[in-house]
Design a protein that fits this description.
The chain is of the alpha/beta class. The protein has one domain: Alpha-Beta Barrel (TIM Barrel). The protein is built from ten helices and eleven strands. It has helices spanning 15-18, 29-36, 44-47, 52-61, 74-77, 86-94, 119-128, 152-161, 201-215, 249-260; strands at residues 3-8, 39-42, 67-71, 104-110, 132-133, 136-137, 140-143, 164-165, 167-169, 183-188, 236-241. The strands form two sheets. Strands 8-7-4-3-2-1-11-10-9 form a nine-stranded parallel beta sheet. A two-stranded antiparallel ribbon has the order 5-6. A hairpin with a 2-residue loop joins strand 5 (132-133) and strand 6 (136-137). Helix 7 (119-128) packs parallel to helix 8 and helix 9 (201-215) packs across helix 10 (249-260). The N and C termini lie close together (11 Å).
Length: 261
Amino acid sequence: MSIYVGMGGWVFEPWRDNFYPKGLPQKRELEYASTHLTAIEVNGTYYGSQKPESFRNWHAQTPEGFVFTLKGPRFATNRRVLAEAGDSIRRFFDSGVTELKDKLGPVNWQFMATKKFDPADFEAFLKLLPGKVGDQTVRHAVEVRNDSFRDKAFVELCAGHGVAIITGADSDFPVIADVTADFVYVRAMGTQEKEKLGYSKAAIRKWAERAQDWEKGGAPKDLKLLAPAAPKKKRDVFLFVISGAKDKNPAAAQAIIADLK
């Protein structure tokens, strides 16, 4: 599998009315979600560290081929000088994230909308991101939310370090669709209550088509690039339905998965 589709987290009370079967014990919600989706983005790691036991349990409760992407800690990204984030990054990886083993997907380093592009300091941050932790390869993606990052220099910087730029779509944040790594990371944030599946059927089809274009090594023609297109080669794609009408996100993710088949 090279296209992974999911949502943010698995614990959300409204999902017990429209996603999880009635009466399903909360301790089995991850197990259930992982058999209907192919990935989950974990937001809790943004706010605080987890124990190694948690990562081991998540690995044990999910099927082969399932993937978790993790939010990097806010203590690393919500700072004036990014070059000073080394200790926070080390503590994050020392917390046991590699206990996810083969189910560890890319790490999402999310920046606040007030954070502006400072080429020298941002490059210093990218240099702090480890390519390996122990024997395990780690992939990284950055989610920027300030319009100053809509800059060809930012794209070239991330490409030089093999770090993906997260495409945050269907929101008020700037959309940067340039491919800068051996994978693509997308956060679709536009589900609506009025739509049964969160997105219209046409929008579901469009997201599936975009994922397939990226997976084949191309770029969706309807998303503008800031720099020349990356060389064409097969890539993993991680697509998460996030925010928006959150109660609809499981339905939207499942509909995209169904459209990919």
